[in-house]
Amino acid sequence: xxxxxxxxxxxxxxxxxxxxxxxxxxxxxxxxxxxxxxxxxxxxxxxxxxxxxxxxxxxxxxxxxxxxxxxxxxxxxxxxxxxxxxxxxxxxxxxxxxxxxxxxxxxxxxxxxxxxxxxxxxxxxxxxxxxxxxxxxxxxxxxxxxxxxxxxxxxxxxxxxxxxxxxxxxxxx
Amino acid sequence: xxxxxxxxxxxxxxxxxxxxxxxxxxxxxxxxxxxxxxxxxxxxxxxxxxxxxxxxxxxxxxxxxxxxxxxxxxxxx
Lengths: 173, 77
Fold this sequence. Notes:
The structure holds 2 protein chains of 2 kinds. Chain A is α+β, with helices and mostly antiparallel strands.
């Protein structure tokens, strides 16, 4: 693990830095996905947009997703960085970088990561159209990785296995 | 309650506190929010609720001090 961690960023993302943070001498394949702000949506010209993030929950979802991906694919390293705040057309909104021994796992894990980010991260976007009109983009009901259900009441509580803590390196201080 | 994005706009506030009876559930809290802020109703079907940053079912019982967040449909990436 080098330097930069997966996170929500209020500042512009530098894809080269994210890429560098996953490069690994044991990796034979590294995939970098860069999401950028399109100039059109449903035929309408977009001037820019604003991302709103429920940061506290997003941090947990990032850690859960990293953990899930590491369980599913034997990757070397993964970083996911998503922007928050106001962005212009062409700016980078998301970067996913994955390194693995072979390209197959790197592609699969990166594809899975971006697909899951879209449905499981508590992020909303408000697009700004010419004329200054701002509209919340249509989304999908959030599908995050479920937490174990709570016992109905204290008296029903039975001893449960304590959830393994996320790897220290994945949790932002 | 914590209201995010469209829910924050519909409620006209970011945060508010509700005092609920014992054994109240996610649904109880959501009903209170909808009653207090009728504009939230247009989001009702697509809303998900998180307790302490984890999505929970509507029948989940709340505990004192829980942070209950109202999340409209998401659109990251």
